[in-house]
Design brief:
The two termini are 28 Å apart. The chain is 81% helix and 0% strand. It has one domain (2-316). The chain has helices at residues 2-30, 35-57, 61-92, 98-105, 108-120, 126-149, 154-182, 184-203, 214-239, 244-250, 253-266, 272-297, 302-316.
C-alpha cells in the first residue's frame, strides 16, 4: 500500500510538471522559435543530465550488465515515446490551444486501458469505466467549446496531437517490462538520453544555436529540465510502483492544471463549459482515490485480483505513463 501511495505522489508531481510543457511551448512559438529549434534545445539541454546520471549508475558492474543486455530495446522505446510522440505533439501545438492539446493528450489513458485489456484479457473494474466515462465527458464538453472558438485549422492540430497520444500509449505499454528488468533510473537515462541525442542529430541541420537570445536559452532550459528531465524520472519511479491503468488515471489532473496555467500565462479563454468539464475530470480522480481507500480496508476483491493479475502480466509481458508526456 505504501508503495502504491509513493507511486501516486511521484505520478502527481510528474503530471504537474508535464502540464507546464504546452504553456512553455506556446511561449516558445511566440518568441519565433520553430519546431526544430524547440526539439534541438530540448535534446541538447537534457542530454548532459541523462549522460551523467547513466555514468554514475554504471559505476556498478551489475548496472553495466543490465545496460548492455537491454540497450537496444530501451533505446527503441525511447525513440518511440520521446521523439516520434513528442514531434507529433509539438507540431500539433502550432495549431491548437494549450488547453485543447492537453485534453487530447489526456485521451492516452483510454488507449492504455484498452490495450492492456486486449493484452491481458482482464476486464477493467467497473469503477475504472465509470471514472473514464466521467473524465472523458468533461473533456468532450471542453473540446466542443474549443472547436466553436477556433477555425478549421484546429482539425490538423487535433489530428497530430491525437496521433501523439496513441503513440505515447504504445510507449507506455512497451516500457514496463524494461523498467522491471533494469530499474526506472537506468531505463529513464538510456531511453531519454538516446532520444535527446537523436533530437540533436536530426534537428541540428535546421537550426542556428548562435542566433538564440538569452530568453531562448532560458526557455529551453525550462522546457528541458522542468518539462523533460524531472518529470521523466518521477514518472519512471511511479511506473515501477503502479499498474499502467492506475498510473494513467492520475493524469486526470493534467487538463485542469494546464487550463489554469494557460489562463494565467497565455490569456486563453476559460468559460463555464471549461469549468464544468474540468469538474467532471477532477471528480473522476476522486472516484479512483475512493476505490483505493476502500480496497485498503478489506480483503482483495475480484477487481483487486484483476489489477494484481494485470500488474503481473504487464511486468512479464508488457508494461506501463508519461507524459506526458510528451512527454
Amino acid at each position: 500500500m505504501q508503495r502504491q501511495t509513493t507511486g501516486a505522489i511521484f505520478a502527481l508531481i510528474a503530471c504537474a510538471l508535464f502540464s507546464l510543457k504546452p504553456i512553455l511551448i506556446k511561449i516558445a512559438y511566440s518568441l519565433d522559435l520553430t519546431l526544430n529549434d524547440i526539439m534541438f534545445l530540448r535534446g541538447s539541454l537534457s542530454l548532459p543530465i541523462y549522460a551523467v546520471t547513466l555514468l554514475l549508475l554504471c559505476r556498478s558492474h551489475e548496472n553495466r550488465q543490465k545496460v548492455r543486455a537491454k540497450l537496444l530495446p530501451i533505446a527503441a522505446t525511447g525513440l518511440l515515446g520521446y521523439v516520434f510522440a513528442s514531434a507529433l505533439d509539438l507540431a500539433g501545438l502550432q495549431y491548437v490551444s494549450a488547453q485543447l492539446e492537453r485534453l487530447i493528450i489526456f485521451l492516452f489513458p483510454s488507449f492504455v486501458v484498452l490495450l492492456n485489456w486486449g493484452i491481458t484479457r482482464q476486464r477493467p473494474a467497473n469503477i475504472v469505466w465509470l471514472a473514464l466515462l466521467l473524465g472523458y465527458s468533461g473533456i468532450a464538453t471542453i473540446v466542443v467549446t474549443e472547436f466553436q472558438l477556433a477555425g478549421t485549422h484546429i482539425l490538423i492540430g487535433a489530428a497530430l496531437v491525437l496521433c501523439s497520444a496513441l503513440v505515447f500509449a504504445v510507449y507506455l505499454l512497451l516500457s514496463k517490462t524494461q523498467i522491471t528488468a533494469v530499474g526506472s533510473d537506468i531505463f529513464t537515462s538510456v531511453a531519454l538520453g538516446t532520444a535527446s541525442l537523436i533530437l540533436i542529430v536530426v534537428n541540428i541541420p535546421f537550426v542556428a544555436p548562435t542566433s538564440y537570445s538569452v530568453n531562448h536559452w532560458v526557455l529551453g532550459i525550462a522546457i528541458a529540465i522542468l518539462c523533460t528531465v524531472l518529470p521523466s524520472y518521477f514518472i519512471g519511479a511511479a511506473m515501477a510502483r503502479m499498474s499502467p491503468t492506475r498510473l494513467s488515471l492520475i493524469s486526470n489532473f493534467g487538463p485542469a492544471l494546464t487550463a489554469l496555467f494557460a489562463v494565467i500565462w497565455l490569456d486563453e479563454v476559460f468559460t463555464l463549459s471549461h469549468a464544468f468539464g474540468l469538474a467532471l475530470v477532477v471528480f473522476s480522480v476522486v472516484l479512483i482515490q475512493r476505490r483505493k481507500e476502500t480496497s485498503a480496508e478489506k480483503q482483495r476483491s475480484p477487481t483487486d485480483n484483476t489489477d494484481a493479475a494485470l500488474d503481473k502480466d504487464v511486468q512479464i509481458n508488457t508494461q506501463k505513463i508519461i507524459d506526458n508526456g510528451t512527454r
